[in-house]
Amino acid sequence: MGSFGIKVVENNLATVKKKYQVDIVLAQAENVTFGKGISIKDFYRLKSLGIDGFTAGNHIYHYKEINSLIDSNDHMIVGLANYGFQKKYKILVTPSGNILFFSLLGQIVGKDAGIITENPLKIADEILTLIKNDHSIKAIIVNFHGDYSSEKVIIGHYLDGRVQAVIGDHWHVPTNDARILPGGTAHITDVGMCGSLDSSLGVKSNVIIDRWLTGHKTKNILENDGKWQFNAVNISLDEDYKVNYIQSINLKG
Ligand SMILES: [Fe+2]
């Protein structure tokens, strides 16, 4: 979330990668540049910090320039699979096999953002049908960017046993329910964010309190000082690409 979030990633990612022996990092990109969207410059900055693939949310198209990267097979950033006509997924080529990933937007947050989405369950089915004979794909990671907890939980059960992981986000607040579902899929309702800790999801608290008290429309001002948080999940796959475990990483300082 914003430049504070980039700083938090800069200060923590290398240590986390080393500690958990991480091979591949995926990160949500929709709130990077001044809290909305991601510029091409910030894409390369985060990539250079060790992020291999970037997922999407309701603000992902804020900087139009990013569309050229989303449209290209060479850049590991996805748009929303259930919105628009862009590529629905990306394939990350790794030494341990190809990993397919995509982002779905929940229909509640879509409606709030004025984005007409297609049904995420049906789009997930379409993608899985499309790639079912591609044996080079060894793992599938689904990012679900949604608002209702019921949506965020149920999509995990819907895809359970068909993909390696369904990772929820958009709340910026991590949930304490990371687990392997009965069919073997790793799931968390919300992974949380990287950025300011003492804030309203990265925005200065007093801005939000004033807005709530007065009802006035005001601009978000990001919190760039104070305590930080780094939230993630670590997912381990065995040699057969089955999920060994999912664990939350929640650092503060
Ligand atoms: Fe969002």
Description:
The chain has 253 residues and is of the alpha/beta class. It has a single domain, classed as Metallo-dependent phosphatases (Purple Acid Phosphatase, chain A, domain 2), CATH 3.60.21.10. The chain has seven helices and eleven strands. β1, α2 (40-48) and β2 (53-55) form a beta-alpha-beta unit. The structure holds fe (ii) ion (FE2). The site of fe (ii) ion (FE2) has 5 residues, from loops. Residues 30, 57-58, 145, 170 line the site of fe (ii) ion.
Tags for this model:
Purple Acid Phosphatase, chain A, domain 2, 7 helices, six-stranded mixed sheet, alpha/beta, binds fe (ii) ion, 253 residues, three-stranded antiparallel sheet, globular
Gist of the model:
With about 250 residues, this protein is α/β, with parallel strands linked by helices.
